Amino acid sequence: MSFQNPVFIPGPTNMPEAVRLACYMPTIDHRSPIFGTILHPCLDGVRRVLKSESAHIFIFPSTGTGGWETAMTNTLSAGDKVLAARNGMFSHRWIDMCQRHHLDVQVVETPWGQGIPADKYEEILKADTAHTIKVVLATHNETATGVKSDIAAVRRALDAAGHPAMLFVDGVSSIGSMDFRFDEWGIDVAVTGSQKGFMLPAGLAIVGFSDKAIAAGKTAGLPRTFFDVTDMQKGYNNNAFPYTPPVGLMNGLKLALEMIEAEGLENVFTRHTRIATGVRHAVDAWGLKLCAASPDLYSDSVSAILTPEGFNATDIVTRADNVYGVAFGVGLGEVAGKAFRIGHLGSLTDVMVLSGLATAEMCMVDLGMDIKLGSGVAAAQEYYRTTAKT
To answer: How crowded is residue 232: how many other Cβ atoms within 10 Å of its Cβ?
Structure first.
């Protein structure tokens, strides 16, 4: 790929130059008061992005995967029961992590391309009269399939069942790009990372805990050291980490949050919806389908595009990289070779996306697909120009 071209993978995403430069800062004494002027604005800003008044925010030197390990090890004990739907590669990976931690996972197998079956969750929760299920897992935005699930519906399922299980939500590819409501949806742990909606390099696991999740830590038996939120909170109380913090990334996060709030959180969501809609117009013009089964499931941060049966979708990604210097995402898991992915989140504009759509078209035509050159670009152009602010 070429460093001159934007990337169209679902993360890491493109970085604003100002954010990149903010990460590239001189060394400071991370135990001096100056670190507190970086740390606390980050914690407060993330809380606002989560739309929470009271979430306990923790930022670890890690990725979203480390964020999930933080969620589990600080709240659960070996043998505890967890309810989860497997509807994509990333929900599969969270299930795998639970099993490696010796948790008892009840898996609801769900077709890839579908969202979390909240009705099935409700049925299972109502049947669990002994309340053996301790946590319900939900992937808000399945990055492998471009499917957005209804987290409010999952909360309603818990409430309808009168079940006390905690609700953990993977928001890795949604938080900062799509509407997320920690308090309103009754979320107990939300997990994300720095490299998607926050427009940073990979390297930060960002998690929000409810009071209930914090309280669960008092009896949680899974081992933890690096990801111990109690140790982290003690560090925060002294304007520090319990170990050396990633100061440059934190400084970048501080600026990224300022940029998000300067644009306006709702405006950020509207921009992502607008860009994604243009991509969907292009897909329609190509005569192709999304992996997401219906419009209510369409993600505003990534589109997984199915190619005709017998065509290897990975060839599009390979040709884009080798010939045009542009990065798209390959299909993963059950849709490997059947779909390619266009990431449209983070630091992105209509004009940038048009270049990605043009590249995808060239690749498909080069590879002999029955696509009219310019058709998808024209469809997206028409949408963008007729909906642009004047």
So the answer is: 23
